[in-house]
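BUG-464 | component: ligand-complex export | severity: low

The export step for magnesium ion jobs runs without errors, but we want the raw record kept on the ticket for reference. Input record follows.
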Amino acid sequence: MENMIKLTGLRKAFGGLEILRDISFTLPKGNVLSIIGPSGSGKSTTLRIITQLEKADDGNLEIAGETLFSSVDGKAVYTTPDKERAIGLKTGLVFQQFNLFPHFSVLRNITEAQKAVLRRSKDEAEEKAISLLRKMGIADKAKQYPYQLSGGQQQRVSIARALALDPEVLFFDEPTSALDPELTREILKVIRELAEEKMTMAVVTHEMHFARAISDWAIFMDKGVIVEEGTPEALFGDPQEERTKKFIASFEE
Amino acid sequence: MQDLLVQMLEGTVTSLEIFFLTLVFSLPLGFVVAKGKMTKIAPIRWIVDLYIQIMRGTPLILQLIFVYFAPFYLFGTSYDRFTACILAFVINYSAYFSEIYRSGLQSIDRGQYEAAKVLGFSKAYTFFHIILPQVIKRILPALGNEVITLVKDTALAQTIGVAELFRVAQTASSREFSTVPIFIAGVFYFVMNYIVSRLFTIGEKKLNYYR
Ligand SMILES: Nc1ncnc2c1ncn2[C@@H]1O[C@H](COP(=O)(O)OP(=O)(O)OP(=O)(O)O)[C@@H](O)[C@H]1O
Ligand SMILES: [Mg+2]
């Protein structure tokens, strides 16, 4: 199977403190990867480097066959700014805090980048937005402003906003952590539907049952390294490492 | 009486000129100053910080005198009072506006920049279409206060002999032993500020459609 993401030897330090040490994984096209791990283990930073919100210190990253950075003499060397932008358009990121644009209507939140970045016509962008909102079950909210929506609805808008640019791979950084259980279910349902459509995704989550149910592969990170990885059945059902066992057990009451 | 009105009208025009010219230059310059205060380049930041401290820490009346007379004492050259007045107002108000802009810029959540970056918006597009509109909404009340202060501050231009409204009113008042001219001037400042605050209220209402 073709790889959407091929990451090897990723390193990252903040102010001399190494918080990612030799992270490697691959994400095949059409697969769902879940990343679990305790707070501060580097999950967000990993996603933020792949989506270009942070720079890698060292390592190699290929996204849909294009090299974003590669290791030269122990340092990550990035491709040209033009290519960085082009690769950036292949990736989408959904944030824990939604980060919708409060001054734009729901519709405009979803059309703005289509028009300004992809140069789509207004009609085309709106058609796309409406069909995505329909898919998210919130087509009636198109004219509203983010503050008028529940957290779950806002998160669905932000997923629609990311999908509108037709990314090849979508990342979620704790998409339900700001939501109460009922709204969490709404969002998990949306992500599950995307998985059924074979959207390539990587999800950082604390929803263990959900992660186990939807992913093809699961990674457990701690203190900047991948401690253990495997199929969800293996990682959640029969973890080998002591740290993994402890972490997963802590979610089971 | 006819003469007095004509004089006061001329004074009013001068006051309005000071007001508008100051805004035209210091509103955009304030942004440059705010950027300077937020730069990673330490020496620039220190200099800009010192400049803001001086502008905020000393009276505008002193700054006016300094800007007008310093070239004379230093180089023996003098220049147009009106130009000096505008210069002093602009450097003073740019400092105040910059602090308002800075607080507005810093109040915007980092997530807004990150969402914009991930969606592929350019830096310029992000600033003008995503960040700036939100900043303007947040700083409008503070900006309104500052502009109202500016209307009243224009009266300080008389210190260096600019014939703005208040100076004209004062001169006329002592010449004719009457407080009427002063009163007329007072009405002008009041009306002017009434308009200014109405405009800002309208602006704030217009931006009320989101939170
Ligand atoms: N910009 C930054 N500057 C300095 N340190 C940072 C920065 N971003 C993250 N860190 C540190 O890097 C480490 C990993 O952070 P990261 O956010 O990737 O962890 P995480 O696994 O996503 O945790 P959480 O579950 O709490 O979201 C943490 O110790 C964090 O404090
Ligand atoms: Mg995180």
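Assignee comment: Attached the raw record above. Residues A 14-15, 19, 37, 39-45 surround adenosine-5'-triphosphate (ligand 1) (CB under 6 Å).
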